[in-house]
Backbone:
């Protein structure tokens, strides 16, 4: 956002806003809100929100919404309960693509309100005039059929083919397209909801869920632990549930449910391992709902109810690291949350590190080493791409996303560079000491926002303690504020992947594909195998690999994506129908973007990409379709 606009939208906030506020600490008792009175400091100005939480802060939201598949809208009300932190009587909220019918103050008085100018990405400021005694406002509204958070699917776009389906995706700043709120990750609130839908469908939220289908289609929800707006989540569809352990289970459409039960059999072991590492799971229940393939991400860590793509159901449990990742967010992200989107690495870097530790504990060191080396390869590729395009500042951990779509920060830098920074600290201080530090970090900062500068101070106070030798071993400033990889970066290696590399060299030196030793290879072996051929294949070699290993007809979406990258670059015609089939049935942005990017490198390829996108767009979530439009423009 340009400075002149930003100065209008986001005024300076007085430090006198520090007052007593109901805040929260960890409590595993699901029957009580986890509240304690303490002083809460002023939140950093969030350049991606119009709200004024340092004057008036939302502490609880109650939603009462009716789901209409006919009009593709949610309609009803949102009651926002407020904490007053200043004498201001103007409540500022975030809204986008919402039709506001009316707003009532808690005494029933109709409020005066104003919707500001609609700004790209950011939507509108919703300003509400309050009275001195106002403690809550109730906003009556209807969402737009084009709400970017909500995807409405026809029965033909689902696994069952009989019923429609709805799911939300609020991260990063799309919650404002279905709930008027303070859409900033630093603002945490509890919520409750009444959702009304067709009796043949079940509604689920990032809250306490019912495992029984309601006969009247009305569902009640409670989320007693405070969350950020990007973790508000709703899905409605024909779903079944299976319990997988003491406090976990899976929802999926009936044709998918048994496959999911088998695929996620180790979920309870993951939860138990995570708790052993970094303390109690604070959200009571951990369930996963497997969504239709148009879901734009691998997973979304909505508290108590992870949203997951069906592309991880590979039939061999080889892709369940994603479940470990979303589970890890229950500590890093959901529990201790990035204060602004410039601090996004505090969510994802910690989570990838934690995921790595869970996978090592459940599946062994050799498995973890493969994931880590693949992660470093992805990171180096991303850093090279950003550097070549002139976006070197986006290779820093702490980002400057002011005036930009915060989705621009969703790269491997936040995830993998963040992970390797923490791995570097672990190596410098020792795993036992680092684990103790992280356990205290999550407990001390539970249900609070964290920003980069406070994390630096916490790291120094509780772990590094001014030790100059440790600073030299780690170079924290270089990791956080510098480009690329610092000199202290680890160089991960995997014995399993060394033997894959040997087979690549054999093939490039003339061995036939049939002569290669591929015994006991997992998805990760195959991904490394395919990535080692970047720039080294021709059509003849590609055909030989395809004939031997059937890549074009693989049922594994991770393998297909990496294989199709080669096919597009080489113009490998036998894969062309499969590529089109893939792009019109899978909506996960991680797979779509690199394939469309490769198409866009030539005019002929771009024309083909536009042709496919025209067919596929109705099945893509807005998060994916917006990215593809940018690539093909």
Residues:
């Amino acid at each position: 956002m340009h400075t002149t606009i930003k100065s209008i939208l986001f005024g300076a906030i007085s430090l006198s806003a520090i007052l007593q506020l109901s805040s929260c600490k960890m409590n595993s008792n699901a029957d009580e809100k986890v509240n304690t009175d303490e002083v809460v400091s002023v939140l950093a100005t969030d350049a991606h929100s119009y709200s004024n939480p340092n004057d008036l802060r939302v502490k609880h939201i109650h939603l009462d919404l009716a789901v209409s598949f006919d009009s593709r809208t949610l309609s009803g009300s949102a009651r926002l309960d407020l904490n007053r932190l200043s004498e201001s009587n103007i409540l500022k909220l975030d809204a986008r693509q919402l039709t506001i019918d009316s707003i009532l103050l808690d005494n029933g008085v109709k409020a005066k309100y104003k919707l500001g100018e609609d700004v790209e990405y950011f939507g509108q400021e919703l300003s509400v005039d309050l009275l001195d005694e106002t403690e809550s406002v109730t906003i009556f509204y209807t969402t737009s059929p084009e709400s970017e958070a909500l995807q409405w699917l026809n029965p033909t776009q689902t696994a069952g083919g009989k019923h429609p389906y709805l799911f939300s995706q609020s991260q990063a700043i799309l919650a404002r397209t279905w709930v008027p709120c303070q859409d900033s990750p630093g603002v945490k609130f509890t919520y409750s909801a009444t959702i009304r839908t067709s009796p043949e469908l079940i509604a689920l939220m990032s809250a306490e869920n019912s495992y029984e289908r309601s006969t009247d289609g009305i569902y009640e929800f409670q989320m007693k632990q405070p969350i950020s707006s990007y973790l508000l989540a709703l899905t409605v569809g024909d779903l079944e549930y299976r319990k997988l352990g003491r406090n976990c289970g899976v929802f999926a459409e009936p044709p998918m449910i048994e496959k999911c039960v088998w695929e996620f059999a180790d979920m309870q072991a993951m939860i138990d391992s995570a708790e052993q590492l970094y303390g109690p799971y604070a959200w009571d229940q951990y369930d996963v709902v497997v969504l239709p393939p148009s879901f734009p991400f691998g997973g979304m860590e909505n508290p108590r109810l992870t949203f997951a793509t069906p592309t991880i159901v590979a039939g061999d449990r080889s892709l369940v690291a994603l479940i470990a990742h979303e589970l890890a967010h229950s500590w890093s992200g959901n529990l201790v949350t990035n204060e602004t989107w410039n601090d996004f690495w505090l969510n994802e870097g910690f989570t990838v590190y934690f995921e790595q530790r869970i996978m090592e504990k459940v599946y062994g060191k050799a498995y973890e080493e493969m994931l880590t080396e693949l992660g470093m390869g992805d990171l180096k590729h991303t850093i090279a791409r950003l550097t070549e395009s002139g976006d070197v500042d986006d290779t820093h951990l702490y980002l400057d996303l002011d005036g930009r779509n915060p989705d621009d920060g969703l790269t491997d830098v936040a995830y993998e560079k963040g992970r390797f920074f923490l791995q570097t600290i672990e190596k410098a201080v020792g795993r036992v000491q680092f684990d103790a530090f992280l356990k205290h970090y999550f407990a001390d900062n539970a249900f609070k926002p964290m920003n980069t500068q406070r994390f630096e101070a916490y790291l120094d106070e509780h772990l590094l303690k001014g030790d100059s030798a440790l600073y030299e071993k780690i170079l924290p400033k270089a990791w956080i504020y510098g480009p690329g990889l610092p000199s202290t970066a680890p160089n991960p290696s995997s014995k399993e992947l060394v033997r894959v590399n040997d087979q690549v060299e054999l093939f490039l030196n003339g061995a036939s594909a049939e002569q290669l030793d591929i015994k006991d290879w997992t998805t990760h072996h195959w991904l490394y195998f395919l990535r080692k051929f970047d720039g080294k294949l021709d059509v003849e070699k590609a055909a030989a690999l395809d004939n031997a290993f059937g890549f074009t007809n693989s049922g594994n979406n991770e393998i297909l994506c990496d294989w199709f990258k080669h096919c597009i670059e080489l113009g490998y015609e036998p894969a062309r129908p499969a590529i089109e089939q893939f792009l019109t049935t899978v909506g996960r942005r991680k797979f779509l973007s690199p394939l469309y990017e490769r198409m866009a490198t030539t005019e002929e390829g771009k024309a083909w990409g536009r042709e496919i996108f025209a067919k596929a767009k109705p099945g893509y979530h807005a998060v994916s379709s917006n990215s593809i439009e940018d690539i093909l423009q």
User: Anything to note?
Assistant: The two ends are 22 Å apart (CA to CA).
